[in-house]
What does this fold into?
Amino acid sequence: MAVYAMSDIHGKYDLFMELLEQIQLKDSDTLYVLGDILDRGPYPIKTLLKLMEMPNAVCIVGNHELMALECLEFLSKEITEDSINELDDEVFQKIMSWVYNGGKTTIKEFHELDREMQNEVIEFIKDFEVYVRLSAGGREHLLVHAGLGNFRPDKPMEEYSLHELVWTRPDYNVRYFDDVYVVSGHTPTFSIKGEQLPGRIIKKNNHIAIDCGSFVPGGRLAAICLDTGEEFYSSVCEKEDNGS
Ligand SMILES: [Mn+2]
It folds into this structure.
């Protein structure tokens, strides 16, 4: 009945498989993936399809899934006069900004799927959780992609906007809760002041930061068992690999 957390796989399917091999997930265990499965690395959709067939994996939405959702429905349409007319400035800007943020590999693999699988992928992403509260190892945890933007101790969870949960970086120098660990991805741990590559999971001020930079040369994919605190690391990402 162990609970594991992992984040920011970013299309690094091989590193993901390496970590699954290490963890040896049992049927009664649960793996929470804290978003940003997509984009940047070469196999984002292959990674997503693997997660779709894992009954004990629970995915939480990241900013890259949000960007993808805003574009994939449009991109899965047949090119017709109507769909061309829908390509207004707003849709065009969203697609451009997604591509700028590494969407290219997701778009490439998405187009290789048949229409039915494309729809299944879109529906799967739509079902992602926004955040998860759980207890493990006798402690309370809040799992969220980026953090708690504009944090206030008295702010109820339902008052956080999606943007505050999936885009805004938390302040790792501030202890948000005395009795709840905030588990987040999104911010590679080597970019949190004073940390070095290869990235390690950072535990401080009741934060557990688990994005160790799977896509960044010198970074790696990490997972943590929230019951025991045991940490798992993939091999180091050797070079920027965007599938092209
Ligand atoms: Mn992110």
User: Anything to note?
Assistant: The first strand starts at residue 3 and ends at 6. The pocket of manganese (II) ion is lined by residues 36, 62-64, 145, 186 (CB under 6 Å).
